[in-house]
Structures are given as structure tokens and as C-alpha cells.
Amino acid sequence: MGSDQRTGRADVNVHPNQLQFLWQSPNDYSGAKIVGDTIVASRWSNNGNQITAFDARTGVVRWNRNVGPSLLSAPTVSGGLVSYMNGPQGSAVLGVLRLSDGQLVGSKGSLDASFAPPLMRDNGDGTADFVLATSNGAQRLRLNGSTFSTMWSHSLNLGGMVTPSMLGKTVLLAGVGHFYAVDFNTGQLNPFHTGGISGGGGSAVVVDTATKRLFIQENYDDGVFGTLTALSRPPSLCS
Q1: Is residue 117 within 8 Å of residue 163, measured between CB atoms?
Q2: DSSP assignment of 80-126
Q3: What is the pLDDT of residues 63-72, one digit of tens each?
Q4: C-alpha to C-alpha distance for 180 and 191, rounded to whole angstroms
Q5: Residues 6+ apart with CB under 8 A from 137
Q6: Rounded to two decimals, what is the model's pTM?
Q7: Are 144 and 171 within one domain?
Q8: Residue ranges making up the domain that contains 227
Q9: What is the C-alpha separation between 128 and 140, in angstroms, rounded?
Q10: Are 219 and 202 in contact (CB under 8 A)?
Q11: How close are the terminal C-alpha atoms of the chain, in Å?
């Protein structure tokens, strides 16, 4: 637990012995996101995967939506929308639900994307933007009503299971030995680091918005190597 300034400290004084049990969900939930008094989480189940919204105070299920039997990402929440990726790379589905009641707003299938959580921005005007990463690149999609359109796309050397991050107006992506910054609006690309290796999967960029520092973790394979790189200055595309 830490403050919004990423100091590692929180301005609260809680003694562990004073904590009281309130409620517990069924097993197999993960990727929980807290939005006001709502908690949204995803669940892998033999009976079909689910996205569920809980009342944060009572644990009462506000809505539950079955989203199919395949691989399921953690949910992403922005504004009044919830998004998720479902399915294997090459035939993945991007789903978008209303946060208030779990009703389907739109979906786009046959995507060459992994089941890593999508980067989403609810624009508040009936449109929403999404950045999806694959082993071979990244793309930005716009949802207008129930229709998706492609705003930009790039072929990139990322590996698998890459989660995009944002700093200002810049999308940040990392593969093993390859780091990229992309202007969210225009798609202008800055490959700000290129190493002598590629492949792997599970690489991610963590952004400290208070100090504009980047922490990039590269995972090639289990037992091969995993490195952490810290950058004190953002790439030139960052605002």
C-alpha cells in the first residue's frame, strides 16, 4: 500500500489487529480493479469464464457476465466501461461492457492479440480507445457506438503477453531487447532501445507518473533470464 506519489508510504494508520473480515469471493478470481464502491474481477472457470462486479462494502454481486471458455485477461476499467481480452492469440476477442450493469457495448473478434489486459481510455463522448499488443506489433482501435475502427498499427518485436502502458500521450511497450514509445494520437513511433536479442514474453513497462520514471521488466523464458531496467528520463515522445 502506498500513496499516489509512489512514495511507498500511505497517509493512514492501520494496525493489523484492528482489521475486520468483511467478505470473500468464490475461488479463482483475479485481476481485481477497484472503482469507487465497485470491484471488478475476472474468473477462469470450467463452466465458462466470467467478469464480475462486486459491491466493495458487502461483496454482493452487482452483475456477472459469462465471456466464453477460452483464455481470459484481467479486466481494464476506464470511465464507465470495462474491457477484457478473451481467447488465444490470432483469434482473440476484445469485449467492452458497461460498468454500471455489465451489458455488452461492443466486441471485436479474430484479433492477433494475446490475452494480456488491453489499454483502454473512455473518452466520455460515446467513443473509447484501446491499445492492443501482440508478439508482432501493436494497434490502436477506436470504438464508436458499437463499431470498431483501426487508428494506427505497427509491426514490432515484442514477444508474447505484452501489456501496454501510458505516460502522458505516449504508449510504452517493451519486448526482450526492444523498447518502443508510440504517440497515442498520431501513431508516431520511437524505437528508443534496440538490443541484440528478441523473442520471449511477458515483458512490461511500469510508469511512475509522479517522477516520469520507467521500469521495464524483460522476461525471455523460465530459467533463461529476467532483467529490470530503470530509466530516469522518458523517451522523447513522452509529454
Answers
A1: yes
A2: TEEEEEES-TTSEEEEEEETTT--EEEEEEEE---SSPPEEEE-SSS
A3: 999 998 778 8
A4: 4
A5: 153, 154, 155, 156, 158
A6: 0.86
A7: no
A8: 157-239
A9: 10
A10: yes
A11: 27
